[in-house]
Structure formats: structure tokens, C-alpha cells
Amino acid sequence: GAVVSQHPSRVICKSGTSVKIECRSLDFQATTMFWYRQFPKQSLMLMATSNEGSKATYEQGVEKDKFLINHASLTLSTLTVTSAHPEDSSFYICSAAGVGNTGELFFGEGSRLTVL
Amino acid sequence: GQNIDQPTEMTATEGAIVQINCTYQTSGFNGLFWYQQHAGEAPTFLSYNVLDGLEEKGRFSSFLSRSKGYSYLLLKELQMKDSASYLCAVNTGTASKLTFGTGTRLQVTL
Questions:
Q1: A36 to chain B, minimum CA–CA distance in Å?
Q2: Interface list for A 80-109 with B (CB within 8 A)
Q3: How wide is the angle at C-alpha B90 spanned by C-alphas B39 and A38, nearest 5°?
Q4: Which residues are CB-neighbours of A40 under 8 A, at least 6 positions away?
Q5: pLDDT tens digits for range B13-62
């Protein structure tokens, strides 16, 4: 299957700082990537849809100025958590659509963010 | 809105069979996925159903009834390593945009 790589896998930062998470499709081009957030023992919640060369589409309730998404190339999307607060601590997972018509998503390894 | 429901937790014995149900009410439907997720890891793909019926893949099978908005994942010959969360997700028809259910945490015991 297609490979999606996410970096960093773990990050700890101080409250008020910004953190950037990268998501790369390694062996295919992804015009669309998705960013999910997952709190402990909960399911994945879609935050935004990242479209190459255009602005991201955010889900209701997700602050676009706080969670900056950039999809500058067909293989890279980045999520920047700005002015992070402890409540932003979570597991962030990116995904990209696979080749074909099934709509299957391939997920990155996830990034665990801890804001102190 | 989108609504996808699964039981929160299930427990089953090693070697047994377990069925995890998923009901959905979504604005669109272009296929249903099941993913397995171990704690602290990303989800991994298990199965995909877009037509009614049963899809079998080794120890895992998935069933879909579109008219009932219902799916289940069947795990046979349970192994300890099957202890994980199982996520039901619906492609609502917009470019692989998946909406995930609440997830079912399965605990396999001896």
C-alpha cells in the first residue's frame, strides 16, 4: 500500500509556542490530505481537508487561525499549531487518499503533542 | 449531520468469534471502511464495503446493508494481538473524506 510519513512522532512544547507537524506521501502524489485529531480513548475527529495549491477546508468548530495548514506540494502538507495550550495536547494524524476509486485512506504514524 | 455508532467496549475470549456492529446515518454514502488501531498508533486498513453483502479476508469479514445503514466486522479465531480499537468509517462521497465512528475497544482474554 501507499506510504505516508509523519514527523515528528512526539513533541513536547511550552504553552504559547508554535509547533509544526509534517505529513509526506512517500510513493504517490496526494492532491488531498486530511488532518485528524484524536483525544485519549476517543475516535478520530476530522479537523480539515488540505488541498494542494489552495486553502484548506476546516470542519465546524476548528479554528483556522490556530491550526494553520499548508499544502504546498503534491507530497507535503503541514499542520502548525499556533500559540499552543495544554488543551491542544492530543494525537494528530494525517492521511492521504490512496490510488483508485475506493477512497481508502493511508495514515501517517501520528504525532503526539504535549503542551506543558 | 453525520452519525456513526458503535459499541464502546467489547470483551471476548481467545479463539472465539466476535462481531462488532456499526450503524450509520450520513448525508451521503460512498463506501464503508473498517480500521484497526492499536493504542498510540495510526489506524490500519482492514476492509471496505460499498455493495451489500459479506466481504471475507482471512480471519476478518465485513458485512454491509445499505438499506439498514448497518455494517458489522466479524473476527474469527481471536488472538491476543487482536486487542485493539476497531473504527468504522463512512466515505460520505466527497473525495475520500471519511467520517469515523466512536470506535470499539476490543479486549481479548485468555
A1: 10
A2: 91, 93, 95, 97-98, 102-109
A3: 30
A4: none
A5: 999 999 999 999 998 898 999 999 998 888 898 999 999 999 998 999 99
The residue written with cell numbers 491550526 in the block is A67
DSSP-derived letter for residue B71 is E
CA distance B86 to B89: 10
> Of B23, B1, B28, which Cα lies nearest the Cα of B102?
B23
Question: What ranges in B6-91 are assigned the alpha helix state H?
Answer: none
pLDDT tens figures, B62-93 = 999 999 999 999 999 999 999 999 999 998 87
Q: In this structure, what DSSP letter does residue A52 have? A: T
Cis-peptide, bond into residue A8, ω within 30° of zero? yes
Helix (H, G, I), strand (E, B) or coil at A81: strand
**A85: its cell numbers:** 495550550
